[in-house]
């Protein structure tokens, strides 16, 4: 990989050393790295022993049949007990577990005692409907406490949940319910989004009508109070079934490798992959990273992760990590700009949020809207900020720290995947001197490398493919029902090293700079260029709010750089689209080199994104190459594509 291609990122010279006061009180210290380097498995065993085991484990890792790992496998634990009962038994039952904020402004405060009682009741309700160990339960809910209660109730029974994002279609539900052969579905009448109730149950009805399925019950939470169709004998109101269920439920221990959940994620082919996670290793790494990466002090912190429960970030950093650690957190139902653009910042001010975890796409949209919106609120309670989901451009990183973090908070840019289950690469606050745009170092106990195509380590100041070289506790255990696809997707390229599918560059210090999915890496006249690096250059220009870059096929150069940009409304007021495009082509050439100069720049009003906020480059490539637009089922708003093509014409 050409080193000049990442010059713009690596010209990023800003460094932020930890504040000594922060370091003095930090949860994590450099000794964690030393301990893990000295005895990696012993380090993870120590972390696992922070949990409550019904039966202690004696073996940490069984890697005798790679890539099928077993962690702590002769131990037994109950995941829900670890997230609930043990905090109550330790005298922390009155601590708030969830400050829930509904979009219309209604609120609920739920303590650990109350959450434990609700989960016990829900476990009895599900058991009464026939759910037992190993059964699959699909959950299709808005961001309401019942989503958390349902997941924990399923976990408490040793059953397996499959959470389906509330924005997915009936067809997606059908495919997931069928693939996992779910027995029961938990949904709601509807939820609140953008000031309106959006119906949910009707999608489940349509999915089940079309599916070959053994689903015997649909439990329906009342939230939207919208009308629903009712199938007698199958449908059950949550509140009715709960009121008939006992609040007494003793948690049983299950094998550490008992499956905990399946979560579907898109792969290179059309069919989504059901990523399978199990119990002991997953909870160990989710809890450890949540504590050390966010510097969690459960007695005093108010933590908020804005992810939807339908994504892996919602699983690991809204449900399992924070609750295993006894944290107090905020959960918000709605969209960031309802009923006004300052809603998130108002919530931070209201609850005194101290730790905040969100995605670069959200940060960039706030940059676009203008700093005066967050600056109207008191955000001084914040002390740690996190980022996840895609590479964060240095400009967005610095804006995040300056505007949201008051110029003082450490930022942790956390790299991980649905497949890795928990954070793998991140700075540790109070320990790491941070570099805007770099996820930096593997967390203690994780071994990574950057390899070239033939599997050789690339060395410093070079780029290649990111791999994880040793098994880790929260690693996926497979793809549901498809062990061959599991082997083929992740373990066929570099043997027992896990192939992540991301490009990465190591700088002179050995720090990792993520360059996006390898399928987002372009090859222009034999030079490798990352979409991310050109986007970063574009966003560093004052008139640009957001940019997406794709490699479009080109007769002469193989691929050519094509960019789509959204301009900042104020700063770009007096510039025409043609002028903007000229200025920006010159700017990229100046920042990175002539090789990176976009062949075309399109000024657009919006960019197509998946529901999890990732830019759909595949669709942009279709547009850039003049093809018919492909499958848009996972788009938040398919009208965006029309907007883009119209703007271009
Ligand atoms: C947690 C999550 C995984 C893919 C991953 C990578 C990208 C996530 C990132 C990042 C650069 C970060 N990604 N975090 N890239 N820096 N801090 O997002 O899981 O939805 O499975 O996506 O997201 O490309 O391979 P998932």
TrEMBL record:
Residues 31-83 form the Acetyl-coenzyme A synthetase N-terminal domain. It catalyses: acetate + ATP + CoA = acetyl-CoA + AMP + diphosphate. The keyword Ion transport does not apply. ATP binds at residues 389-391, 413-418, 502, 517, 528. The keyword Ligase applies. Acetylated. Deacetylation by the SIR2-homolog deacetylase activates the enzyme. CoA binds at residues 193-196, 313, 525. Mg(2+) binds at residues 539, 541, 544. GO terms for cellular component: cytosol. Residues 533-614 form the AMP-binding enzyme C-terminal domain. Residues 90-480 form the AMP-dependent synthetase/ligase domain. The modification N6-acetyllysine is found at residue 614. It is an enzyme of class 6 (ligase). Its EC number is 6.2.1.1. Keywords: Acetylation, ATP-binding, Ligase, Magnesium, Metal-binding, Nucleotide-binding. Its cofactor is Mg(2+). InterPro entries: Ac_CoA_lig (IPR011904), ACAS_N (IPR032387), AMP-bd_C (IPR025110), AMP-bd_C_sf (IPR045851), AMP-binding_CS (IPR020845), AMP-dep_synth/lig_dom (IPR000873), ANL_N_sf (IPR042099). CDD domains: ACS. GO terms for biological process: acetyl-CoA biosynthetic process from acetate. It holds the Pfam family AMP-binding. One of its GO terms (molecular function) is acetate-CoA ligase activity. PANTHER family: ACETYL-COENZYME A SYNTHETASE, ACETYL-COENZYME A SYNTHETASE 1. Belongs to the ATP-dependent AMP-binding enzyme family. HAMAP family: Ac_CoA_synth. Catalyzes the conversion of acetate into acetyl-CoA (AcCoA), an essential intermediate at the junction of anabolic and catabolic pathways. AcsA undergoes a two-step reaction. In the first half reaction, AcsA combines acetate with ATP to form acetyl-adenylate (AcAMP) intermediate. In the second half reaction, it can then transfer the acetyl group from AcAMP to the sulfhydryl group of CoA, forming the product AcCoA. This is Acetyl-coenzyme A synthetase. It comes from Microcella alkalica. The lineage of its organism: Bacteria, Bacillati, Actinomycetota, Actinomycetes, Micrococcales. The gene is acsA.
């Amino acid at each position: 990989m050409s080193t000049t291609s990442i010059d713009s990122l690596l010209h990023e010279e800003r460094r932020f050393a930890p504040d000594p006061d922060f370091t003095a009180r930090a949860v994590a210290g450099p000794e964690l790295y030393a301990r893990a380097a000295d005895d990696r498995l012993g380090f993870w065993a120590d972390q696992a022993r922070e949990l409550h085991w019904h039966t202690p484990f004696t073996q940490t890792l069984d890697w005798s049949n790679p890539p099928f790992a077993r962690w702590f496998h002769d131990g037994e634990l109950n995941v829900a007990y670890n997230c609930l009962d043990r905090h109550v038994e330790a005298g922390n039952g009155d601590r708030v577990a969830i400050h829930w904020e509904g979009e219309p402004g209604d609120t609920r405060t739920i303590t650990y005692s109350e959450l434990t009682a609700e989960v016990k009741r829900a476990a009895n309700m599900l058991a009464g409907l026939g759910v037992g160990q190993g059964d699959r339960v699909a959950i299709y809910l808005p961001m309401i406490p019942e989503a958390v209660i349902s997941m924990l109730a399923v976990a408490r029974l040793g059953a397996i949940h499959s959470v389906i994002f509330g924005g997915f279609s009936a067809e997606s539900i059908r495919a997931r319910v069928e693939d996992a052969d779910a027995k029961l579905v938990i949904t709601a009448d509807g939820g609140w989004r953008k000031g309106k109730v959006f119906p949910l149950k009707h999608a489940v009805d349509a999915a089940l009508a079309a599916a070959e399925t053994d689903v015997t019950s649909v439990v329906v939470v009342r939230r939207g109070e919208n009308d629903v169709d009712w199938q007698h004998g199958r449908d059950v109101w949550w509140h009715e079934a709960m009121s008939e269920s006992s609040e007494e439920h003793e948690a049983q221990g299950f094998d550490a490798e008992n499956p905990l959940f399946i979560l579907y994620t898109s792969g290179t082919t059309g069919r989504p992959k059901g990523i399978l996670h199990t119990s002991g290793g997953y909870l160990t790494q989710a809890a450890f990273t949540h504590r050390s990466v966010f510097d969690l002090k459960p007695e005093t912190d108010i933590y908020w992760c804005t992810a939807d429960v339908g994504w892996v970030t919602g699983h690991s950093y809204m449900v399992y990590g924070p609750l295993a650690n006894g944290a107090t957190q905020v959960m918000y139902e709605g969209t960031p700009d309802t009923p006004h653009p300052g809603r998130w910042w108002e919530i931070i001010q209201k609850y005194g949020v101290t730790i905040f975890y969100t995605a670069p796409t959200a940060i960039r949209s706030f940059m676009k809207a203008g700093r005066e919106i967050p600056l109207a609120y008191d955000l001084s309670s914040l002390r740690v900020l996190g980022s996840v989901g895609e590479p964060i451009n240095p400009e967005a990183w610095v804006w995040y720290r300056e505007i949201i973090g008051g110029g003082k908070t450490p930022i942790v840019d956390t790299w991980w995947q649905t497949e890795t289950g928990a954070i793998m690469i991140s700075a540790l606050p109070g320990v790491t001197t941070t570099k805007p745009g770099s996820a930096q170092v593997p967390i203690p106990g994780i071994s990574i490398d950057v390899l070239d195509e033939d599997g050789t380590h690339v060395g410093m100041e070079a780029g290649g493919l990111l791999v994880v070289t040793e098994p880790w506790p929260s690693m996926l255990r497979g793809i549901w029902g498809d062990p061959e696809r599991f082997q083929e997707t992740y373990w066929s390229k570099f043997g027992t090293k896990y192939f992540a599918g991301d490009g990465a560059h190591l700088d002179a210090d050995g720090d990792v700079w993520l360059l996006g999915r390898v399928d987002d890496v372009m090859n222009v006249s034999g030079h490798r260029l990352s979409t991310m690096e050109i986007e970063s250059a574009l966003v560093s220009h004052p008139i640009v709010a957001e940019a997406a870059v794709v490699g479009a096929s080109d007769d002469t150069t193989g691929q050519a750089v094509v960019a789509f940009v959204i301009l900042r409304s104020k700063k770009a007021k007096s510039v025409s689209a043609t002028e903007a495009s000229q200025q920006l082509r010159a700017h990229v050439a100046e920042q990175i080199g002539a090789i990176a100069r976009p062949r075309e720049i399109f000024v657009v009003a919006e960019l197509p994104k998946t529901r999890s906020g990732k830019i759909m480059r595949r669709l942009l490539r279709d547009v850039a190459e003049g093809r018919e637009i492909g499958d848009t089922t996972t788009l938040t708003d398919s009208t965006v594509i029309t907007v883009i093509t119209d703007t271009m014409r």
